[in-house]
Amino acid sequence: MAYDMRQMAERFGSDGMIPAPGDVERLTALLGRPLHSYRDYVAQIAG
Questions:
Q1: Integer Cα distance of 27 and 40 in angstroms
Q2: Which residue of 1, 4, 27, 28 shows the fewest CB atoms closer than 10 Å?
Q3: How far apart are CA 14 and CA 34, in angstroms?
Q4: Helices (H) and strands (E) in the chain, counts
């Protein structure tokens, strides 16, 4: 399990979390608002 977690973390670090086709549209419809980045979220709650 540790090996798998390391592999996953390395991939997130190098490529980020790339959504599958249709994921952005599906999440936008579910949330009822546009998606935003983690950086934007932190800036909003910190400010």
A1: 17
A2: 1
A3: 25
A4: 3, 0
Rg (CA), the chain: 14
- Of the candidates 23, 5, 21, which has an alpha carbon nearest to the alpha carbon of residue 13? 5
The CA distance from 12 to 16, in Å, is 4
Report if pTM > 0.70.
Answer: no
Residue type, 30: L
Distance CA 21, CA 18 (A): 9
Tell me, letter by letter, the H, E, C secondary structure of 14-39.
HHCCCCCCCHHHHHHHHHCCCCCCHH
The model's pLDDT over 10-45, given as tens digits with 9 standing for 90+, comes to 988 888 778 889 999 999 999 999 999 889 999 999
